[in-house]
Every structure is written in structure tokens, then in C-alpha cells.
Amino acid sequence: MTMAISEMLIEQNNATVAFLQAKDASSALESSILALTNSSRIYDEQQISTYQTRGGILDEFMLFSATDNESVNAASGTFIYEHAVIIPTTIEIDSTMLITILIFNAALAHHEMAERSFCHPDTRMRLLRRAKNLYEIAYESCDLEQNLLFQFALINNIAVIEQDIGNVSTANQCFEYLMSLLIVFVDQGYEIQLQHVKGFVANVPLAIKNAPAA
């Protein structure tokens, strides 16, 4: 990846993040789609980077986000992990990691747009399915074992969508897994990560909350 393309994509990504932080879902959606479209030039021009970003860098980027705006959607009563991933301009990043971040932020932009009150039901469902597909692509694109917070965010948001579109059993399986991952955070003393996912308890069905301990 040439420096010019990398810098352009990082700038576009961070513009998407700024729109999401400002709750401007429409502009974020447009910006994220533009970033993904531009990212195709990496492959069209065969400019895949041989530089490899260290394994846990995704979680490090996610921890740059503020955690003072964790909230549960008043209408649905669900918690969406809504911190888009900003890329520091001072850090070198490989093409695979960069595109994974672009995909995640695009998924989040679609998800946030679907949650807008003015969204037509058919449009909302289409946006949710696109968001889910993008989250799933991001899930397959990185080393999740070294990026537990990123893994948590992806699975949580996929589960919220599965529940929203009526796949309750699939959603509950995801939530059960996230409960076990939450215990890992507690056991490992990941206090900062816990601050990022403290709203998750709103997503856990009562049956899971009240399940007896093993």
C-alpha cells in the first residue's frame, strides 16, 4: 500500500469516526461507504502491504475511545457497542488491519443509521442486515484471540441485530458466550475494557442472568 493511499484511507476513516461521535449517522454512512470504495484501490493496484501490525493493535486502537457515553437504547432497551475505531496518524498499519477497521466502522454506521427514529421499517431491516454482514466480514478478518475487546464488540452487535430480526436463539447463544468473555475480563483485571462494555448487561436475557452458576 502506498503512503498516499494509506493516509487517504486513514483520513477518511477518522472522518467517519468524527461523524459517528457527533451522532450524524447519515454523514457517517456516506463517509464509510466512500472509504470502503477507496480501499478497493489497494487491491486494484496490487499494493498489499508486507508490513504486519502487531497482534493486539485493534484493541489498543479501541481503547483510545472515550467511555463516558455508554448508553442503552431507550426504545429497544439494548446496548450497542458504538465506539468507532479511530486510527492514530502516527502509527504504521498494515493493509489487512486497516481494511478490517474500515469494515467495522462501516458496519457501525449502518447499524447506527438503522436505529434512527425516522428510518422506514423496510429500510431499517436492510440496513441491519448490511451491518450484520459487515460485522461478520470483520469477524473473519483478524486475530480475535489477541483482540478480545474487538471480538466482544463484534459479537455483541451481531447478537443485537440477530435479536432485532427475530433470531432470538442465535442471539442468546452469542450473549451466553459474551458472559463467559466478560468473566475473562474480570479475571484478568481488564478494568479499561470493562468500562467499554459495561452496558452489556442490558442485552442479557433474564433466563441467562438468572441461570445457576456451574
TrEMBL record:
It comes from the Eukaryota. This is Uncharacterized protein. It comes from Cylindrotheca closterium. The lineage of its organism: Eukaryota, Sar, Stramenopiles, Ochrophyta, Bacillariophyta.
